[in-house]
Design goal:
mainly alpha, 66% helix, disordered C terminus
């Protein structure tokens, strides 16, 4: 995600008129498909959104696959020709779900900010970061058994640009609502550190068999404590990151430092 953070949201409005038009032509008309694929077509994005939502229902049985996507399209009464709207195939279901959860977390953080009593002190940064990371990880629990597959799919070179963009937006949202106003190297370093902590905790979580993921949350606490210790070597770390142009790569460097490798 270092990449631009200007990604738009899938539309969530009424798509009934376009959907009826597609159904009437059974998705076989190239002109209809083009109208849905047009990047500035809100209705087209609404249709894609609902196809992906329908496809999610099949992920537990068929994974983040083309099969799930085809079944979702069939559930909506559309032709398999609609597959052409999804250039990346079934992995777009995983990207869609990831983006939906990121938006849900953003809504929760915004509501928390709105509910804060005027003039009151915001929560400590460390507490806010832990709460945001834990909440985001808990949001994906409905597909926990399939999440390792999703992580494997998003490292495909064709998928990385879009997955990275969503990831950067998600990390930036956390720091925005944490109240970060830095504009220097601190802006970059802070996002890379949280990205490192989140990624390591996520990887730990998919292997965790402890009740209620107690070991995962203990791991998260340790990683956040590591961040405080790294503050002592902040200048050295910033120098190392200054020539890195990707938050994902920067997060890897930070994770390596945190693990002492």
């Amino acid at each position: 995600a270092v990449v631009s953070t200007q990604s738009g949201h899938y539309g969530r409005g009424n798509y009934s008129s376009l959907n009826k038009n597609i159904k009437s032509q059974n998705c076989s008309s190239k002109s209809v498909i083009r109208s849905v694929q047009t990047h500035n077509s809100d209705k087209g994005e609404d249709v894609k959104y609902d196809i992906l939502e329908a496809s999610l229902k099949h992920v537990k049985n068929h994974g983040w696959s083309d099969t799930s996507l085809k079944l979702g399209i069939a559930d909506m009464g559309l032709s398999e020709a609609c597959n052409s709207m999804f250039n990346l195939g079934g992995v777009e279901i995983a990207l869609h779900y990831d983006k939906t959860l990121n938006e849900e977390l953003e809504d929760m953080m915004a509501q928390q900010q709105d509910d804060r009593i005027p003039g009151s002190e915001p929560p400590p940064i460390a507490h806010f970061l832990k709460d945001a990371i834990k909440t985001r990880l808990e949001l994906q629990l409905p597909y926990y058994d399939r999440w390792s597959e999703a992580l494997a799919l998003v490292v495909d070179p064709k998928v990385i640009p879009r997955a990275s963009e969503q990831y950067a937006r998600f990390i930036d949202d956390i720091w925005f609502y944490a109240g970060d106003k830095s504009t220097d190297i601190n802006w970059y370093t802070r996002r890379a550190t949280v990205a490192a902590v989140y990624s390591m905790t996520e990887l730990f979580m998919i292997q965790d068999e402890s009740p209620d993921f107690t070991e995962t949350w203990a791991f998260l606490d340790r990683r956040l404590a590591d961040l405080e210790k790294m503050g002592e070597n902040r200048l050295e770390l910033e120098k190392e990151l200054s020539n890195v142009g990707d938050i994902t790569k920067a997060a890897f460097i930070i994770a390596r430092n945190m693990l002492g490798r």
